[in-house]
From TrEMBL:
<dbReference type="GO" id="GO:0003924">
    <property type="term" value="F:GTPase activity"/>
</dbReference>
<dbReference type="InterPro" id="IPR027417">
    <property type="entry name" value="P-loop_NTPase"/>
</dbReference>
<protein>
    <recommendedName>
        <fullName>IRG-type G domain-containing protein</fullName>
    </recommendedName>
</protein>
<dbReference type="GO" id="GO:0005525">
    <property type="term" value="F:GTP binding"/>
</dbReference>
<comment type="similarity">
    <text>Belongs to the TRAFAC class dynamin-like GTPase superfamily. IRG family.</text>
</comment>
<keyword id="KW-0342">GTP-binding</keyword>
<dbReference type="GO" id="GO:0016020">
    <property type="term" value="C:membrane"/>
</dbReference>
<dbReference type="InterPro" id="IPR030385">
    <property type="entry name" value="G_IRG_dom"/>
</dbReference>
<keyword id="KW-0547">Nucleotide-binding</keyword>
<feature type="domain" description="IRG-type G">
    <location>
        <begin position="52"/>
        <end position="234"/>
    </location>
</feature>
<dbReference type="InterPro" id="IPR007743">
    <property type="entry name" value="Immunity-related_GTPase-like"/>
</dbReference>
<dbReference type="Pfam" id="PF05049">
    <property type="entry name" value="IIGP"/>
</dbReference>
<dbReference type="InterPro" id="IPR051515">
    <property type="entry name" value="IRG"/>
</dbReference>
<keyword id="KW-0378">Hydrolase</keyword>
Amino acid sequence: MADQTPPESNFTEEYDIITDEDIAEIRDALEGGRLDEAASKILESLEDLENAQLDIAVTGESGSGKSSFVNAIRGLQDDDEGAAATGVVETTMEPTPYPHPKHPNVTMWDLPGIGTSEFQSHAYLERVGFSRYDFFILIASERFRANHAQLAREIQKMGKRFYFVRSKVDADLDAARRRRPASYSEQGVLTQIRDDCCRRLLAEGVASPTVFLLSSWELGSYDFLALEETLEKELPAHKRHAFLLALPNLSLSILQRKKEAMQRQIWKLAAISCGVAAVPIPGLSVVCDVTILVKTLSEYRQTFGLDDESLCKLAEKVGKPVEDIKEAIKSPLVKEISRDLVLKLLTKAGGGALMFIEYLASTVPVFGSMAAGGISFGTTYYMLRSFLDEVARDAHNVLIKAFETDYGVRASHAAGTGGKEKKGALVWMRHGGGMEGRRDEGGGEE
């Protein structure tokens, strides 16, 4: 890890050190002036965030792609261990939970199909245990029908949110391309699909419906990012954090938002490390719990998909040797996380940490009288922040290396983007057992 101390003049701007909300929390936690006494309160807050349970219900007619969506959102192929069973006939007879493989507090629930003629929404919701879910994804692969609308109205009546997803749009685009190769317009076909879905839902009494167009085989394309951003906005803060960290690393924008979410928790981790079971570190004026730091850095690596298991899966999907993918990784901690290496990084944090401590003492005056406690906090905070920056940069480079593309990037054709494509979202396409990325230079219609 490079020991680069930013110039004092732009330190606060470049590092966006800590928000006003964070400052208020720190002041409140340190009201008594002792970091060790505040640490238990901060630890409780952080544990509540890390353990926040998120339950997502996915339902629709048989064969609409419910189970494939459950797998894709968890970063799994249909034949991976732990994947939901898929098939052309209904394979889900009871609500079936599928915990995220790396974030078990996030569970996708594959619900029984709703395509029977005697369907009754109220009875269905009672049968599947309506109250346990945070929100519902209603999927259709062709048309939204009366059952979808009936279920949506019942969910709304019970005070929960739902989102319409039109699946398998890649198949529709492929069919349209074959039928009319000369006049084919991807954006035109997508607009037609979306308009037809909204028209049918309006006819069934659903007011102002929003429909997200997706493909479980090209999850990073079309409206997935718009759906993800909508969910982020509408979920409570602690649920939003859990949802974001559990998302597959499909795009550069998702990587950036994950970094921002983890960045907001660094001051809490630094305070806990310096205030709970902290021990002096020989040769450093720092007192901290190195075990907490090792655990935190390991979690950063896993969340960004830089652990060996995730890298091997990515290499398999893109059909490249894993060693080629690893060439994009520069941070030493991504390759090895150990107590000794953490201690070396704490030593290197020196100059930048002192500047941060001065800034913090001027913003939260109590730090100025905390002596060793303030130094320990500042050093730990600076080290965690520096490592997070490096890991996020490595994840960015790995995604580009995997697809041999730059910002290859096609974002969603989302409602509200006017059909325009934005840069920032890597196209993640699954063809057969492999994957490919492609570069879209124009940022407009294809």
